[in-house]
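task queued by scheduler; priority normal; single chain, no ligands, no partner chains; default sampling; output format set to structure tokens
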Amino acid sequence: MWSGFSVVALVIWLSNAKASRGLSSRHVSHLTPISLPIHLQSPRSVQAEGGASNSISPVTMSSDKQSYFAVIQTGEISFRVALDTASSDLWIMASACSTNTCKAVPRYPLAYRSPTFLAVNDNSTTFNISYADGTVASGFAARETVGLSNLTLANQVFGIVTDCNVTMTDETSGIMGLGFPRLSTISNLVTDTAPFFVALAQQGLLDYPLFGLSLTRNASGTLSMGAVDASIVTNVSNIGWNEVVEFAPFGSESNVSSYLQWAVPLSSFSVNGTQIAPVPTYPNVTSNTSIALLDIGTAGLYGPYQDVTRLFALIPGSRLVDISGQWAVPCDTVIPISFSFGQYNYTLQSSDYLIGPAAGNPNLCLTWPRAFPPSPDAIDWQIGAAFLRTVYSIFSYGINSKEPPMIGFYPLRNASDVTGSSASVASFLSSISATVATTLPNFPLSTPSYTTPPYGLNSSIFAPVGGIVSSALATSTYSPIFSNGIVNASALPTISPSPTLATFILTNPAGVVTTSISTVSVVTVTLGVPPGWNAGTLLRVPLLSTTLVCLVSFSFTLPFLPDIIYELFAQRH
């Protein structure tokens, strides 16, 4: 009864990494009944010059509040793509796809003879990705120059989708995965290739092999590559770092463990200060450690029944309202929930974890986390945007033979600011129009029981946390920042976003000083339309340029360029 949302990011890795290897799709049940779509946000792109570099791009929450998207260039054509840390492939819907979902968004025009487009095996290297909600995307692999902000890679492999029923919002034409290459379907079909971010790290094209994410409820987020956003991270010593978990091979995939997902150990979780130890699904495999996947492509929080049931037992008035694992709590709840990674606690206020009131039961709010059945990959928790909006997250890719992958969290809220008032929560829910069109059952539901499936990976191969590996990570020409548990925080590269407004102090010939504020000028970037072709949906991207004269001095007053001003026209191509 809660269907109709688009579900994209999570299932990418399910179909690519698991279904293709005979494993059951992970977390399918928690997606189908109340699919809360991914939110994507838009970066802007500029061409890179070569050598080590960094970039920062705007990131925008989608209009359905379920995902984040950014803008990239494939050749000379701009597209919005969904950002996803739980998959690794980049794919774009193409003009050859005539399904209704494809025709609703800008598409890569195959009739355009891009000077940087290269066919792979005469366009005969095909891929097929199936999603947990029954949707599919298929097509062929190709090479093209791909750009994100001031970073550009020539001959980057990506997917040209020619058949697809995956519903995207906000003129979003595809997905950009930011995960490990082991997850990639498309890159693994073409020799000597790697996903976009991975290729940048492996070629040493970034100041440091990492990316950072600031997620907001509007268009003010950022995606940085090679450095962290200095407008947000003002004290790097406050970043809590966590080593990433290795995963055993799938069957006979290999004879060693390797990095698969952006997943880290979850130390504990708390409700209103009461700490709870998580119960891992496969304690003998994970050394009694609960594993959490960090996924920008997931809107909320998902955990195993054995943990989620105990969490809600500490929130008065909570109850299970759907056998899919959905709970509801009184909408005036102000009880904080915390998650502990390493030695750091990160607290969510109720405005962070409440989804919204049920239309038929306006005093009850659907809420995160949602419970799901055991997953054979041993991932117990899936931590999405509901948590990631409360921190600045840093994904450090690791260095061959020197440094493991790490995830850092920089808290955006004062540790003492853990509760809110019922009035503030009600105001927040009203401001985001969060009402969910459903009526909850008027009788209690029993917590379902599940049989734990056999572990889906090779249990005879040990998978450590934070292991040093000799291949598949960033080039060993990088000097490690993390060494023997010590972080050289001062060596962490930073980057500052472009400003949005300029303050101009003007002095006329009479010596009278006046102050004025001006926004930067805007140029137009056309989504899905090559240079010289007719314009369809226009995307206006602010650039740093002004035309004021008589400038004596100026100072920038706001920390970030307004990410994107959208101007949508009725005609689509």
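post-processing summary
- The chain has three domains: 9-209, 236-495, 501-567.
- The first helix runs from residue 9 to 18.
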